[in-house]
Design goal:
This protein is of the alpha+beta class and 454 residues long. The protein contains 5 helices and 23 strands. The strands form 6 sheets. A 5-stranded mixed β-sheet has the order 17-23-22-19-20, with no helix packed on it. Strands 1-2-3-4 form a 4-stranded antiparallel β-sheet, with no helix packed on it. It has a 4-stranded antiparallel β-sheet with strand order 5-6-7-8, with no helix packed on it.
């Protein structure tokens, strides 16, 4: 063993002596308690030592790999979530003008260490290695120039950069189904839903693969009531709300690619087709910038991996929010069908129960169906000039909204009242109140009488 704090041989004497009166004895840079054994703790210092205690800190053993020389900073140690004797160490030697990547793995409690950097290029020294706590052998590495992923316990690495800026990655955390990285000067970044990476670690994708979605939480979208930031204001996009549907096409599809969502009874909830793209919005038809027009994507047909997000709505982006439960995702490609199950859970912050949200959904569907019938009947009646359809309020220069209908027997009144009720029912995650149920019954009776008179 070497003397603690000894300067490396390639450091010139004046620099080695420049210690500002403080002798170098090493700083503990990382402490890694084992998630499997309470008395097993790893530690690493900035002068190139790795230590382990198996009795809660009463005794420490030096387990430094022989290849780690003085002044090699042990930036981070990760204790395995699956094997108590397994750990990973990230080594930083850039203070020695050595920018090569260094990372090690032990499976025998530190007695032997194996280098695990194949695939990480020179010039991208390693700051952190983290293990996916839900999948054995899936690792993430943060280097001075980006993020890498390994599907075979560090034997091989490949970039996981995507749209992340080229910057120093100082730490990584796996939270649920998301990977969070802390960068040096470029803020925190989150890679949402790595369920697909976990499946890739088990099986390579076939020519066409539909991956099982991660659990999705039914979180309501935010509103636009605040002042929007200017388009040129630097900002990152918020994560999309919904079920993340990932699929892989080995070759470009020969025909349309379809996606369907079915409920537990097999009923259709939502449908998309690459052959049926939404009608583009004419910029001249709106009074605001196209930047604020929401995108309505269609399934991609090109070769490679794709992510599509179902926003929890039934029928259309403006449809009813579905309740918590299990849904079937069906991918159609080249005449073949592929299915996976998706689980939607309620927002854990909301006090409503699953039963309450199912009751909300049932009432919202009734209102939606009645609205459809009423609006269709109004259009027919207006073409036939039947007064039962009702007329809109006259223009009022003092009130852009106009007056509410005073004819409480008209379809116009029912239409407006149903829209108001629908907004109230779906305004929050809550079971419908008795007043809402009563209001629907009242409006349904008026609508039946009005429709019968057409």
């Amino acid at each position: 063993s070497r003397e603690a704090g000894a300067a490396p041989s390639n450091l010139d004497p004046p620099t080695a002596a420049d210690d500002n009166g403080v002798k170098r004895h090493g700083v503990v840079y990382t402490i890694a308690p084992s998630p499997l054994r309470a008395d097993l703790i790893w530690a690493g210092t900035d002068d190139g030592y790795l230590w382990v205690t198996r009795d809660g800190g009463n005794h420490w053993t030096n387990v430094t790999p022989s290849a780690v020389t003085p002044w090699s900073k042990v930036g981070l140690i990760e204790a395995s979530h699956f094997e108590s004797g397994t750990a990973y160490a990230a080594i930083d030697r850039h203070r020695l003008d050595d920018y090569k990547p260094y990372a090690y793995r032990t499976r025998d409690g530190g007695r032997t260490w194996t280098p695990i950097v194949r695939g990480i290029p020179d010039g991208s020294f390693v700051n952190v290695v983290r293990e996916d706590p839900k999948h054995r052998g899936l690792l993430y590495a943060g280097t001075e120039k980006g993020v890498y992923v390994s599907f075979n316990n560090g034997d091989d690495w490949q970039p996981l950069q995507l749209n992340l800026p080229i910057t120093s990655i100082r730490d990584i955390a796996v939270h649920g189904d998301d990977v969070v990285v802390a960068t040096h000067g470029r803020a925190f970044w989150i890679l949402d839903d790595v369920a697909t990476l976990r499946q890739l670690a088990s099986d390579a994708p076939g020519n066409t693969t539909l991956f099982a979605p991660a659990v999705a939480y039914r979180v309501r979208p935010g509103n636009e009531e605040g002042t929007p930031l200017p388009i040129d204001e630097p900002q990152a996009d918020n994560p999309a709300r919904g079920v993340y549907i990932d699929y892989y096409l080995g070759d470009a599809a020969n025909g349309p690619v379809t996606l369907d969502v079915l409920d537990a009874s097999g009923n259709a909830v939502r449908h998309w087709s690459s052959a049926q793209p939404p009608k583009p919005v004419d910029p001249k038809s709106i009074s605001f910038l196209m930047h604020w027009v929401p995108a309505n994507p269609v399934p991609a047909t090109t070769a490679g991996g794709h992510r599509f997000v179902w926003d929890f709505h039934r029928g259309s982006p403006d449809g009813v929010l579905v309740p918590p439960g299990r849904y079937t995702i069906r991918l159609g490609v080249n005449g073949k069908s592929y299915t996976k199950t998706a689980e939607v859970r309620r927002d854990p912050r909301a006090p409503a129960s699953d039963a309450g949200l199912r009751a909300q959904y049932a009432l919202a569907l009734k209102i939606d169906a009645l609205l459809h019938d009423v609006e269709a009947a109004r259009q027919r009646a207006q073409k036939a000039h039947k007064p039962i359809a009702g007329k809109g309020p006259p223009d009022n220069p003092d009130d852009s909204v106009g007056s509410y209908s005073n004819d409480f027997t008209s379809l116009y009144y029912v239409d407006n009242a149903l829209q108001t009720l629908q907004g109230a029912v779906e305004s929050a995650d809550a079971a419908p109140t008795p007043a809402m149920q009563s209001a629907y019954r009242k409006l349904a009776a008026i609508a039946r009488r009005a429709l019968a008179g057409l």
